Amino acid sequence: MTDPLAILKDTFGFDHFRGVQEEVIGRVLAGRSTLAVMPTGAGKSLCYQLPAVAREGTALVISPLIALMHDQIRSASAIGLRAASLTSADTDRERTIERFKAGELDLLYVAPERANMDSFRRLVSRVNLSLIAIDEAHCVSEWGHDFRPDYRQLRTLLDENLDVPRLALTATADRRTREDILAQLGVPEDGLVIAGFDRPNIRYHVRPRDGLNAQLKLLLASQTGAGIVYAPSRDKSERIAEQLSSTGRPSLAYHAGLDPSIRARNQSAFVASEEMVMAATVAFGMGIDKPDVRFVAHAGIPKSIESYYQETGRAGRDGDPAEAWLFWGAEDFARARTRIEQEVEPDRRPEERERLNALAAFVETAGCRRAILLKHFGEDTPEACGNCDNCIDPPKTIDATELARKLLSA
Ligand code: ADP
Ligand code: MG
């Protein structure tokens, strides 16, 4: 199977997953049924469109409105996906059925009414499905605000395709609605993924990088549990792994230059361990199902604030306290700026500059780091989170008058 991140870039033209997209897509690709609760605009469509490309067969998408389906088909077709719908508004239904049968569609959109028809279910039984996505899944629940009895009957189709992962998606689901959706659509309790950008159990720390090795050793002496150290290069990841191993802490390296069998072996050793440190490049992380990662450290700035959010977000998925450490030097930003001006296409430079500036603001602030991080994702927060280095131990600001007086009297 092709790397999801490569599909994200090549097919969809995005550099990063947003929020829980990575987690949801990782689950679907692993064949696990999921209910994703994500705010409007969070990017739910990608959660089934990307697996539709990555997995064999056609993704069946249940959607409540013809207008919604046609919007989706337009944008999916524009990026080269083979998408069609079967609705009363489509005049080429025969042709679509032929394409569906021939395995020529990545995505087929239908309304629940059609999905429930005997004839349609017979058709489905002859076709290889990659997944079944149920968009606007709150319609299945009487507790939700748009109850549609036809959604409830989807259970028959789903039960006839038990080996096909199902992905229910909604923006609006309180606890009761969520539980109802899980039960009605047969998604296991642990298949629930809820977005919202704050990760309150992650504590953010930022430090200047002087004496990085000494700092890493110190950090690891006090930090129990498994963790990831992101290194700026393949070489450095290997060197860090060696150095940590020599201090007695089990540590392995992971980067795209390693043999795939070694990568796979190191990854499973990490997933199985409660104390392993993975020294890695950004090639490591996507789709790794390890809820008890206790810390993520960056030995140098990440590519952008979004990468930072995503990479640190791999810590503490179990909800227990976790730490994010960022070690940086002024030269990191200088190098990143040079890269943008020299390697990025001119029309994308303003956006990349903006993202780098957001990261600089995060690094340099004397205020709450979480507030800056979440503001970038459009979330308002209290002024102080109480769980980042600056909130816990506010930096001493220099009193200019006091300083001036001292200088004058000296
Ligand atoms: P939702 O259904 O959750 O309301 P959509 O799937 O319609 O959201 O996506 C909202 C917008 O976000 C779309 O314009 C989509 O192209 C964009 N988008 C989705 N994922 C990403 C991503 N990883 N990076 C950048 N933009 C994204
Ligand atoms: Mg949507």
From TrEMBL:
Q: Which residues form a coiled coil?
A: none
Q: Which residues form the Helicase C-terminal domain?
A: 215-360
Which superkingdom does the taxonomy of this entry point to?
Answer: Bacteria
Q: Which UniProt keywords apply?
A: ATP-binding, DNA damage, DNA recombination, DNA repair, DNA-binding, Helicase, Hydrolase, Isomerase, Metal-binding, Nucleotide-binding, Zinc
The molecular function GO annotations come to:
DNA helicase activity; hydrolase activity
| Reactions catalysed according to its record | Couples ATP hydrolysis with the unwinding of duplex DNA by translocating in the 3'-5' direction
Asked whether the keyword Acetylation is assigned, the reply is: no
Question: What are the residue boundaries of the Helicase ATP-binding domain, all occurrences included?
Answer: 25-191
Q: For this protein, what is the EC number?
A: 5.6.2.4
Q: Does the keyword DNA repair apply?
A: yes
Q: Which cofactor does it need?
A: Zn(2+); Mg(2+)
**Family indicated by similarity:** Belongs to the helicase family. RecQ subfamily.
Name of this protein: DNA helicase RecQ
